[in-house]
Amino acid sequence: MKAIVHAEQEGLTGLLLQDIDAPSIQSNMVKVKLKTAGMNRRDIAVTLRHKTDQPPLVLGSDGAGIIEEMGEQVQGFAKGDEVIINPGLGWKHTSDAPPEGFEILGLPDNGTFGEYISVPADNIVSKPDHLSWEEAGVLPLAALTAYRVLFTRGKIKPEDTVMLPGIGSGVLTFALKFAKAVGARVIVTSRHEEKLEKAKDLGADIAIPTNSDWNEELKNEKVDLLIESVGRATFDQSLSIIRKGGTIVTFGATTEDEVTINIRKFFYGQFNLLGSTMGSADEFADMLSFVEQYNIKPELDRMFSLSQYKEAFEYLKETKNFGKIGFSIG
């Protein structure tokens, strides 16, 4: 089969499109012929985390396709079923944090950027009927992350005002759609006017430049819940704009990881600072029910062929996307 593999060199220069052996299955696994696969910023990070002395690795965490083969212990599915893949391995029930041994497809196990993948049967679910193959393939990781951030960790309420600095990523476009679905007010920021306009088209109530004075722009607003994924570049502003007693949930850092907090300001403000990442299989099922209930679809930016992998990775690295991008495979 053809697959996008990382090997030989660190970083994006180690990416190759190769012919490799199709995966086999064990008794509790299914083999899926992939139709589409979604990209995440994690895929870029994996090209640095995967070492050149390790075996070649098929990248990718998100995917959707058709069951081609099943192990003898698998029940509840049949050959030919249309499924999407939950990329979280070893996290079944919702908990305060992932259990020991939790992993994500695409490192250390081979991922979805190929024509076939074999995964535990516990990690497949039926494809929602309202999603196209392209939409289903890019849904899992980002939608699950956004769901846990807003509902499990942030405990969003319909009357909340939610702020999403740096709108444009897959997770934040899902967070915007999820928050609006439950009736929350949403504020977004971006460095790009085009992304601000697109966010308003999706229902954002206020859209301001990231490099503006947030306190001046939002002097009549009270931000209850802020989803922080930028890092050092915005964290101090995030802490200054959240209402006293409000909550910041962080799930990533597209700029530098380390931030400085004025601890006196923090405890006098009675702020809540929470971390989040991915989610459990229970939350994955809840997220799918939610997107079906509200007929929510991913904000799909564009799809690439496997042979366009260099262009796709550069597109994602330069954050040109508004919403999700991915690969059309079969």
TrEMBL record:
This is Zinc-binding dehydrogenase. It comes from the Bacteria. Residues 11-327 form the Enoyl reductase (ER) domain. InterPro entries: ADH-like_C (IPR013149), ADH-like_N (IPR013154), ER (IPR020843), GroES-like_sf (IPR011032), NAD(P)-bd_dom_sf (IPR036291), Zinc_ADH-like (IPR052711).
